[in-house]
From TrEMBL:
It comes from the Bacteria. SUPFAM superfamilies: P-loop containing nucleoside triphosphate hydrolases. This is ATPase. Belongs to the GSP E family. InterPro entries: P-loop_NTPase (IPR027417), T2SS/T4SS_dom (IPR001482), T4SS_GSP_E_ATPase (IPR050921). Residues 86-364 form the Bacterial type II secretion system protein E domain. Pfam families: T2SSE (PF00437). The lineage of its organism: Bacteria, Pseudomonadati, Pseudomonadota, Gammaproteobacteria, Vibrionales.
Length: 417
């Protein structure tokens, strides 16, 4: 009985929503046609264009004898302006400083991340073509394209935001778009401490190690705060040091004054012209760097950055996707092997142990809070294993000191001071 009552009402609601979307699509076409007929499609500031759009919307509603939209006139006009000048339903989310990530799973499902928590928002696209049109508008200034022959694209917008899009036939339920917004305000160590991401003692240690040119690997899952922490640690690099950064999409906001930023390039539509992280890393070694910052270690470039750490480029840093410090070391071993380095497991472990000084593990908790869960000192190789020493950990909602620095690393920090 309850189903018999509920389903018809739900169907009516869906039909009404579809009718509103069709009306908005028709209104959009009407306004665009009138703007073109009146020669107003040239570049125009939003306030000036807004006046004309208001007039066209009123004319349309009157001609079509549409009722029920008068109270939504301002909202309709703003939606149309977003379509004409911006990125449609995404524009409000892109302008919202509290939104970190935007995830579109087809035209009717849009999610955002705020303060580490995902939630669905009541915005929607008209159809698959509408999503595809917005994606193409985003990537057009970048000289990129997406179509059936090239159904995936990964790019960086002019404001620094990263976008990734996948369209049918690869995306079964319609075009998918992920946007990771670029934060212009670089987070500070004080903010991380106030937010409970680390303790004062942990910060003091990391600050000393970064300034003393220790080699640091930051490990964690997607969205756990690896890049944020890397930006914070960069604040303690001496201004006289030359730093070269290598990234797939430039996200780092290093505070050091002497920074050379390099970015990889994907292959073109003919499969040519690709520039990999390993290509950039090999070239960076010829650029007289004091430190090398590798945005993410994920392939053959790991071998080159470890060798750089071992041959005079102390203070280099990188991030890596792993769930624990132990997993991070295992992943490094695996990637070195996959890079074509034909040697024994013992030698691979020795290269890693002598290159790295610290592994810092970050995580995003179920409530969205990001914290440093482990700080581990890398010591040496014994009995066929990389020996580590856990310095700090996060358990039960509190940070605690587990052990002290080794004599060798303590002496290094003292000498650097």
């Amino acid at each position: 009985m309850s189903d018999a009552i509920w389903w018809p009402s739900r169907e009516v609601a869906i039909q009404q929503d579809e009718s509103r979307q069709e009306l908005k699509a028709d209104l959009h076409r009407f306004v665009i046609d009138r703007l073109e007929d009146d020669g107003l499609m040239q570049e125009m500031e939003r306030p000036e264009l807004q006046t004309h759009v208001y007039d066209y919307v009123r004319t349309y509603l009157k001609q079509q004898q549409v009722v029920g939209f008068q109270n939504e006139l301002t909202g309709l006009v703003n939606e149309l302006l977003d379509e004409i000048l911006g990125f449609g339903p995404l524009q409000n989310l892109l302008d919202d400083d509290e939104v970190d990530d935007i995830l579109i799973n087809g035209p009717r499902l849009i999610y955002v991340e705020r303060k580490g928590q995902l939630s669905q928002v009541p915005f929607r696209f008209m159809n698959d073509q509408h999503v595809l049109r917005v994606i193409r508008r985003m990537i057009a200034p970048l000289g990129r394209r997406i179509d059936e022959a090239n159904p995936m694209v990964d790019a960086r917008l002019p404001d620094g935001s990263r976008i990734n899009a996948v369209i049918p036939p690869l995306a079964i339920d319609g075009p998918c778009l992920s946007v990771r917004k670029f934060k212009t305000d670089c987070m500070t160590a004080d903010t991380l401490i106030q937010n409970g991401a680390m303790s004062v003692a942990m910060h003091q240690l990391l600050r000393q190690c970064a300034a003393a040119r220790c080699n640091i690997l930051i490990s964690g899952s997607t969205g756990s705060g690896k890049t944020t922490l890397l930006n914070v640690l960069s604040q303690y690099i001496n201004a006289g040091e030359r730093v070269v950064t290598i990234e797939d999409a430039a996200e780092l906001q290093l505070q050091n004054g002497h920074v050379v930023r390099l970015e990889t390039r994907p292959p073109n539509s003919e499969g040519q012209g690709e520039v990999t992280p390993r290509d950039l890393l090999k070239n960076a070694l010829r650029m007289r760097p004091d430190r090398i910052i590798l945005g993410e270690s994920r392939g053959g470039e790991v071998l080159d950055v470890l060798q750089a750490m071992n041959t005079g480029h102390s203070g280099s840093m990188s991030t890596l996707h792993a769930n624990s410090p132990q997993d991070a070391l295992l992943r490094l071993e695996m990637m070195v092997t996959m890079a074509g380095f034909n040697s024994t497991s013992a030698l691979v472990k020795q290269i890693i142990a002598t290159a790295l000084d610290l592994v810092v593990q970050v995580a995003r908790l179920p409530n969205g809070k990001r914290v440093i869960t482990h700080i581990v000192e890398i010591q040496d190789v014994a009995d066929g294993q990389i020996r580590t020493q856990l310095l700090y950990t996060f358990k039960g909602g509190d940070f605690s000191s587990v052990d002290t620095l080794s004599t060798a690393l303590r002496a290094w920090l003292e000498e650097a001071e």
